[in-house]
Amino acid sequence: MSIQAKLLIDDLEVNILDFNFTINRKSLNNVTPTNLPVFKGINMVIESRKDLNLSSWSFSKNETKQLQIHIYSRINNGKIRKLYLFDCHLVNWNTKFSSVSNEPMHETLGISCGGVKDSNSDTEYSAYWRVTFDKEDVEATSTEKDVEKKVVNYQLTDADGYELDEYEVGDNIVLHIETENRIGDKITIHLEDKTHDFLYNGKVLENDKLSDYIINSNLEKIELEVISQSS
């Protein structure tokens, strides 16, 4: 993954899985604009976090937040593009969880903004109801260099998520890898089993080692098959 995005909100940095926004202008014969641009809001999918309180923001009639989106490029010398979002209301909020999915629990947010500033642009958007204009009011809580990257834990479970102390040839098991701030990175996991080998995507893991696995979420669930150890 060459690009990743983070949402800065309430002194937290949250992984963005998907986002999109639209700026609309009416036009005459689809050619000449007939009004000023209108920012139609931003929709995003973020990973759930237990320390992120979306309820009070959603339930409040008038609460607004100052947000940032940081877009990191790994192929452009690590340059960060920043979107500053001013006077934001949470107008739609959907939480999705599935016990049978490999995807993390996530939140879908619909956000209206009084103002938008792009670090790649010299101009910015303002709605008539915008009250915050200084981008310094939306201080970044951290930068990519400040973030500690680590593998928190990994374990083997059965298909229902119960941790395994032992397993047999022919069993289908799941390797759980929990990480922090490692999305897009390649990691190597050593299973070090002296009595069994493992199949991953139909191939034997040489020396019980899962090599150069690309992390796509903070909790990865990788299906393996237990096979007899080769001589």
Commentary on this structure:
The chain is mainly β. It contains one helix and 16 strands. It has two domains: 3-145, Hcp1-like (Pnp Oxidase, Chain A, Roll), CATH 2.30.110; 150-228, no CATH class. The chain is 2% helix and 52% strand. The chain has a six-stranded antiparallel β-barrel with strand order 1-2-5-8-7-6. Strands 10-11-16-13-14 form a five-stranded antiparallel beta sheet, with no helix packed on it. Residues 136-146 have low confidence and may be disordered.
Indicate the structural class.
Answer: mainly beta
- What oligomerization state is this entry in? single chain
C-alpha-based Rg, rounded? 22 Å
Superfamily (CATH H level) name of the largest domain: Hcp1-like
H/E element order:
EEEEEHEEEEEEEEEEE
Q: State the CATH architecture of the largest domain.
A: Roll
Query: Could you please say which CATH topology of the largest domain applies here?
Result: Pnp Oxidase, Chain A
What coarse outline follows from CA principal-axis ratios? elongated
Strand numbers in spatial order across the main sheet: 1-2-5-8-7-6
Low-confidence stretches: 136-146
Give the CATH class of the largest domain.
Mainly Beta
Number of helices: 1
DSSP helix fraction? under 10%
What is the terminal separation in angstroms? 37 Å
Q: How many strand units?
A: 16
**Roughly what fraction of the amino acids lie in strands?**
over 45%
Number of domains: 2
Please describe the biggest sheet, giving its number of strands, its sense, and whether it closes into a barrel: 6 strands, antiparallel, barrel
